């Protein structure tokens, strides 16, 4: 009898693990999810609301794929994990036994105890159910006359773009003095501030939420601003102040947790045969400059790939290569390779070269070590760059001068696009002269 | 998630995407222009046809341009797909079905009942819609209009005005703009004006040129080697001969070379008229193509069956008018058949020798197609007479092809069903030219769509907006290059990708097809393990 591998969570981490385990073994595999029947791309939820795609389009595999690959899907909610007997207890009273358990339950939106945070019309944007709620409360600008978004991160700006696509007026409350400036260097953050305003979104920087006010039916009526006491009438409040691991159901088990489920570099928990991957895992020893909890699509996928090796008998540590990430801020695409810090956790030796195009929709920031000139990373906005090239340059520890002089090799924009390498190079040469 | 939910999603936001005042005015102007055409169709005899034709086409143009401006230039540059799946017209709603039925009806009348459009028969003057176009036709070619002239003029107008709309929609994207200018140019110049001017030449007795759109190659141009067509070329002096030679070179030399350098996109999405209409007027329907694996299977069967049919049909047509006596003309029935068989055998042998490993199971189907054609050649040789082929009248094959493939498949279904099946049904399932170019693209071309390391988030925009129904995401999320025979290189997948993952490129043949199952991001050892390098 083949070993039974049970995976809780059908997001990118869990599904990647399942696919790779299937590729290398004949183990019995079951994926459990209470969210949806089939795997979908969470990052694409916004495009359903915007009408770019239907929900079916966000599913990377046709429905027959799972049966054909002998991956059982179970729609259920796990309430309790009993590790002594290797048993899962479901909300509906059923149980399931496992030989190996992979926890890949992802995140849930943060709530910081704001008064009124559980009212009707207050929602995060993470699960499929959040999208359904948004469709209910903000189908158009007659039902939702204004929406307020609290929290200036990647999900916040996505939600702003979504509501904007249906001509629903948006007030966007950002605690920081500038959008996402903990992560983005100031020049980039400033450019995105302007881009948000160009889309007629009411961006309020350095602004906090005091409370959410209810109408007589328990529905959102307005919000009160902490700093000014101003009341903003609205029908929907989006809470997008980050996410945290979705692990309430293991809190009473023997599995060690902190913010997330504690794992070693092999993604093993303190209990044998139980593993955690993706957003819900917390590294005991963080990898390099990475945070212990990485709530990113790509890291979820990589953990799934690595763990599948371990499960199939080739014990392998989660050992991610150079950091990379990407996002899109309304119309401006963003990619990052290596480390470029905003005002949070920037080391003293990290210096930046910043170039911005006059049209205010394209810029790059190259980070380098001020002592050795070693290239540390690049942020690029509005210009696509080649992952493979930067991965290679980071491995080869190239210096900043080399990178700026060879930027053309890394260009990934479509054919016939105007290129900016010469302009960037001459801006760079000028900075050198002034220094 | 469930159907009920989905239903409510598609109904609620309808007011959100309602038309602005400016757009309503634009629609009104365009409809007035169309109304003049409709009046003509119902036999209104306009006193000044030049004036009313100009008015009609002018209003249609003005309405479309105004509408496009209102739609796109009021917003910042970027991807403009908001509400595509909520609007009735672009999500197979009621208006999509109405438009589909109107278009299909138009094609049926055009192909089978031109008299209803006012086509004058046996020397009679035109009436109705066709008569309205007489002034323009006289201006260009000195002849009265025909149903094909009306169709050509409206077709060209559609590519021009919707091309303009498309350019505004993608005003941040130079690849899209250049490509669209290119199809607009080739449609207006090569498909519409030059053939009309060639007709002018025919006023002189030295010329008897057939209608010839020189960018339209055999086998898409399936009548190129018909007897009347070849006779026309041969009887039109050096120019005629040059055009015929160009037609043969196009398919055997020019197109393989360009496809090797740039992929089949040089034709399908930069030059071709069918592609031109699909990319401009058909653009709002590109998301309707089926991405199912079953649709891909159907596509591969159907398009190659059409190709085999078209090769046999053309061979039969040429065979039927060649002679037996090599002293009269060097090309006889038997040398021709031997030539066709030899050429196909050469292509087949080279493919099997050099590319067999890339083909896998498809090699079997390729072999099947090859043997069907060779068998047909033998049967032709042993049973064929000048009158009869395969025991039926030799013209039967040709007219069957013209009816079922040329008219019904490419016109009625291919274009009439845009709002239901998507804008590339013909190009994907039927076009024999696309099959030939696709074969070249898959076997020897520098073209591929490169994926950007590990950046794919599997969102599905690329697959959704692929008009050819390629599941682009399936490749992108594995970090695999996309080398597919059906890809027409429109570049929309790369445009709609929110993370900058896809890039159309012409690069070296080496490493073109790369199947890594582990993406960039994890450490190198793991990649080696999975790709079987170090273990």
Description of the molecule:
The complex is a heterodimer of chains A (435) and B (535). With 435 residues, chain A is α/β, with parallel strands linked by helices. Chain A has three domains: 4-108 and 244-311, FAD/NAD(P)-binding domain (3-Layer(bba) Sandwich), CATH 3.50.50.60; 122-241, FAD/NAD(P)-binding domain; 324-434, 3-Layer(bba) Sandwich (FAD/NAD(P)-binding domain), CATH 3.50.50.60. Chain A is 24% helix and 26% strand. In chain A, strands 3-2-1-7-19 form a five-stranded parallel beta sheet. In chain A, strands 9-16-10-11-12 form a five-stranded parallel beta sheet, covered by helices on one side. In chain A, strands 21-22-25-24-23 form a five-stranded antiparallel beta sheet, sandwiched between helices. Chain A is globular and about 70 Å long. The relative contact order of chain A is 0.12. With 535 residues, chain B is mainly α. Among the domains of chain B are: 1-74 and 113-201, no CATH class; 444-530, Alpha-Beta Plaits, CATH 3.30.70. Helix content of chain B is 60%, strand content 3%. Chain B has 23 helices and four strands. Chain B has helices at residues 3-11, 21-41, 49-72, 94-112, 128-132, 134-141, 147-169, 174-201, 227-234, 237-262, 265-268, 273-279, 293-321, 333-359, 362-383, 394-413, 418-421, 425-430, 432-443, 461-464, 472-476, 492-496, 524-530; strands spanning 388-389, 392-393, 447-451, 502-506. In chain B, the strands form two sheets. Chain B has a two-stranded antiparallel ribbon. Chain B has a two-stranded antiparallel sheet with strand order 3-4. In chain B, strand 1 (388-389) and strand 2 (392-393) form a beta hairpin. Residues 1-13 of chain B have low confidence and may be disordered.
């Amino acid at each position: 009898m083949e070993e039974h591998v049970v995976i809780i969570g059908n997001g990118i981490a869990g599904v990647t693990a399942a696919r790779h385990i299937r590729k290398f073994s004949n183990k019995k595999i079951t994926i459990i999810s209470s969210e949806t029947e089939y795997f979908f791309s969470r990052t694409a939820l916004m495009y359903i609301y915007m009408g770019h795609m239907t929900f079916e389009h966000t599913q990377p595999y046709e429905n027959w794929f799972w049966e054909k690959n002998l991956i059982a899907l179970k729609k259920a909610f796990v309430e309790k994990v009993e590790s002594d007997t290797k048993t899962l207890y479901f909300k509906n009273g059923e149980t399931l036994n496992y030989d190996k358990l992979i926890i890949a339950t992802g995140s849930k939106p943060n709530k910081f105890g704001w008064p009124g945070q559980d009212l009707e019309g207050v929602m995060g944007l993470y699960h499929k159910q959040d999208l359904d709620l948004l469709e209910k409360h903000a189908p158009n600008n007659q039902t939702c006359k204004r929406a307020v978004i609290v929290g200036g991160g990647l999900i916040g700006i996505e939600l702003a773009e979504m509501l904007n696509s249906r001509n629903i007026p948006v007030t966007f409350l950002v605690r920081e003095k500038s959008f996402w400036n903990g992560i983005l260097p100031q020049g980039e953050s400033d450019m995105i501030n302007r881009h948000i305003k160009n889309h007629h979104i009411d961006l309020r920087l350095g602004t906090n939420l005091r409370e959410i006010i209810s109408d007589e039916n328990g529905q959102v009526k307005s919000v009160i601003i902490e700093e000014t006491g101003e009341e903003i009438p609205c029908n929907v409040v989006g809470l997008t102040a980050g996410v945290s691991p979705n692990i309430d159901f293991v809190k009473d088990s023997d599995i060690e947790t902190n913010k997330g489920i504690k794992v070693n570099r092999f993604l093993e928990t303190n209990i044998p045969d139980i593993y955690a991957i993706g957003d819900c895992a917390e590294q005991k020893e963080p990898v390099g400059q990475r945070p212990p909890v990485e709530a990113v699509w790509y890291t979820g996928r990589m953990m799934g790939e690595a763990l599948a090796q371990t499960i199939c008998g080739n014990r392998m540590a989660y050992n991610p290569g150079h950091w990379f990430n990407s996002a899109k801020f309304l119309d401006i695409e963003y990619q990052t390779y290596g480390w470029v810090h905003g005002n949070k956790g920037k080391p003293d030796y990290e210096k930046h070269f910043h170039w911005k195009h006059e049209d205010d929709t394209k810029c790059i920031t190259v980070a380098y070590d001020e002592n050795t000139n070693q290239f540390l990373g690049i942020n690029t906005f509005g210009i696509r760059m080649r992952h493979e090239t930067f991965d290679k340059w980071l491995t080869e520890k190239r210096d900043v001068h080399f990178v700026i002089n060879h930027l053309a090799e890394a260009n990934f924009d479509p054919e016939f696009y105007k290129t900016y390498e010469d302009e960037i190079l001459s801006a760079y040469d000028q900075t050198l002269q002034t220094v | 998630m469930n159907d009920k939910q989905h239903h409510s999603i598609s109904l609620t936001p309808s007011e959100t995407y309602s038309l602005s005042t400016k757009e309503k005015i634009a629609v009104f102007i365009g409809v007035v222009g169309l109304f003049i055409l409709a009046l003509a169709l119902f036999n209104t005899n306009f006193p000044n046809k030049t004036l009313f034709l100009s008015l009609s086409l002018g209003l249609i143009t003005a309405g479309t341009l105004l509408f496009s401006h209102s739609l796109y230039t009021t917003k910042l540059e970027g991807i403009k797909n908001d509400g595509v799946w909520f609007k009735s017209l672009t999500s197979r709603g009621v208006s999509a079905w109405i438009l589909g039925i109107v278009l299909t009806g138009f094609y049926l009348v055009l192909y089978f009942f031109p008299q209803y459009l006012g086509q004058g028969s046996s020397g009679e003057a035109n009436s109705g819609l066709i008569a309205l176009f007489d002034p323009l036709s006289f201006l260009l070619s000195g002849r009265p209009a025909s149903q094909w002239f009306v169709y050509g003029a409206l077709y060209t107008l559609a590519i021009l005005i919707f091309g303009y709309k498309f350019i505004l929609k993608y005003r941040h994207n130079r690849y899209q703009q250049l490509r669209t200018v290119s199809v607009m140019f080739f449609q207006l110049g090569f498909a519409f004006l030059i053939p009309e001017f060639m007709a002018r030449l025919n006023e002189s007795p030295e010329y008897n040129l057939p209608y010839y759109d020189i960018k339209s190659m055999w086998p898409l141009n399936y009548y190129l080697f018909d007897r009347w067509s070849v006779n026309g070329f041969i009887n039109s002096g050096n120019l005629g001969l040059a055009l015929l030679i160009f037609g043969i070179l196009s398919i055997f030399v020019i197109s393989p070379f360009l496809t090797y350098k740039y992929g089949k996109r040089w034709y399908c999405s930069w030059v071709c008229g069918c592609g031109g209409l699909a990319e401009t007027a058909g653009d709002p329907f590109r998301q309707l193509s089926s991405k199912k694996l079953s649709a891909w299977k159907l596509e591969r069967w159907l398009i190659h069956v059409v190709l085999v049919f078209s090769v046999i049909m053309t061979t039969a047509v040429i065979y039927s008018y060649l002679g037996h006596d090599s002293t009269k003309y060097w090309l006889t029935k038997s040398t021709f058949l031997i030539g066709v068989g030899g050429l196909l055998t050469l292509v087949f042998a080279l493919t099997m020798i050099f590319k067999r490993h890339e083909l896998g199971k498809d090699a079997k189907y390729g072999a099947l197609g090859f043997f069907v054609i060779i068998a047909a050649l033998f049967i032709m040789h042993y049973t064929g007479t000048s009158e009869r082929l395969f025991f039926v009248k030799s013209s039967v094959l040709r007219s069957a092809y013209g009816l079922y493939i040329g008219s019904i498949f490419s016109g009625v279904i291919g274009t009439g069903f845009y709002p239901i099946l998507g804008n590339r049904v013909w190009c994907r399932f039927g076009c024999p030219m696309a099959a030939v170019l696709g074969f070249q693209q898959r076997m020897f071309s520098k073209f591929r769509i490169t994926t950007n390391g590990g950046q794919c988030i599997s969102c599905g925009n690329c697959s959704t907006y692929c008009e050819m129904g390629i599941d682009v995401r399936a490749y992108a999320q594995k970090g695999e290059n996309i080398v597919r025979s059906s890809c027409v290189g429109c570049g929309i997948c790369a445009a709609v990708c929110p993370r900058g993952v896809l890039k159309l490129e012409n690069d070296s043949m080496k490493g073109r097809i790369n199947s890594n199952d582990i993406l960039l991001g994890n450490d190198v050892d793991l990649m080696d393990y999975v790709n079987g390098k170090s273990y």
